[in-house]
Amino acid sequence: MAAAVTRQAVCYSLEGSFPNHVVVASLKDGSTICTDDHCKTAKDPVASALYNTVTRIHCFIRSKFGIKGIDGKGTMAHLYIHWDEDNAAWSCETGSCVWRFNSRYALDPKVVGHEYMHAVVSKFAGLNYREESGALDEAMADVMGLAFSEWFTGITSWTIIDRDLSRCIDMRSFQRLTPREVPSERNDYGYVHDNGRIPSHAFFYAVREFNGLLHGKVLHVWFNAILKASRNETFVEFANKTICFAQDLQDSQLVSAVTYSWLHVQVLKQQIPRSIGRAKDLAVYLI
Ligand SMILES: [Zn+2]
Asked: From the CA of 41, how far away is ligand 1's center (Å)?
């Protein structure tokens, strides 16, 4: 509990920057269950738990990356619970964006962190949710879910529950590298969940090589890289961005860990000299 108490203290110190317009509503009838701080003591335990988790994720990203809300301006989307599907989702229709959760996932900090990161990525990078850019979206969401969970609880886990209904209750583990699926429009937007495991495994490898934490420097370079990603970002482009941001931190061990993680998953395919210059020089290493 010591870690959680410390994290809570960080959150309290940022109280003034908490999101100021949070609405938790029910998908059963569209009614509002609670708003803002009233959610802390809402009669619906799922609503209060979700509110508390979201404010902590907000705190985590605000304190680590200086981003307030999902767009840097303090904006929060409405949170809908009581979803009758066994799923959680971030979605935007006609300019209105919402989160939806069934009760099981509303209570899982990893899943809430995952969906929160989808919102941040959509606001900053707007990745096309298909093929490699979609897989990067999924990988970054998984990374954030696990990093937030570790930051808050002090417990490191490399597995996130898979929410792809086609495979029921599968588990997505960062520790396994799975073969790349050939993208197809008819298959999960080009296997965004399956192929997201490739960059996810690179993240695992980099953290392990760096001997760091999930919410440490490797997360920092990934977070900055995804915010600068283009709409149709490829794995290679993203890999080069992470190396570039690692170089900016002037930590040779970090540069080495991040670089070799991408070689390990064969996104970059050539042995790269240790004395490499800027990451843009690596763009020739395509597969
Ligand atoms: Zn997702």
From this structure: 29
Of 211, 141, 148, 149, the residue nearest 172 (C-alpha) = 141
Question: What residues flank ion ligand 1 with Cβ within 5 A?
Answer: 138, 141
222-246: pLDDT as tens digits: 999 999 999 999 999 999 999 999 9
Q: Please tell me the distance between residue 67's alpha carbon and the centre of ligand 1 in angstroms.
A: 20
Where are the domain boundaries for CATH 1.10.390.10 in the chain?
137-284
- Give distance in angstroms: CA of 11 to centre of ligand 1: 26
What contacts 106, CB < 8 A, 6 or more positions away?
Answer: 46, 49, 50, 81, 88, 112
Class of domain 2-124: alpha beta
Residues near 222 by beta carbon (within 8 Å), at least 6 away in sequence: 140, 143, 203, 242
Q: What is the rounded distance in angstroms from the CA atom of residue 88 to the CA atom of residue 284?
A: 38
Distance 251 CA to ligand 1 centre (A): 31
Tens-digit pLDDT profile for residues 125-166: 989 998 899 999 999 999 999 999 999 888 888 888 654 433
Sequence-distant (≥ 6) Cβ neighbours of residue 38 within 8 angstroms: none
Domain with CATH 3.10.170.10 in the chain: 2-124
Domain over 137-284 is classified CATH 3.40.50.720: no
| Distance from the alpha carbon of residue 164 to the mean position of ligand 1, in angstroms | 9
Give the separation between CA 60 and CA 119, rounded to whole angstroms: 15
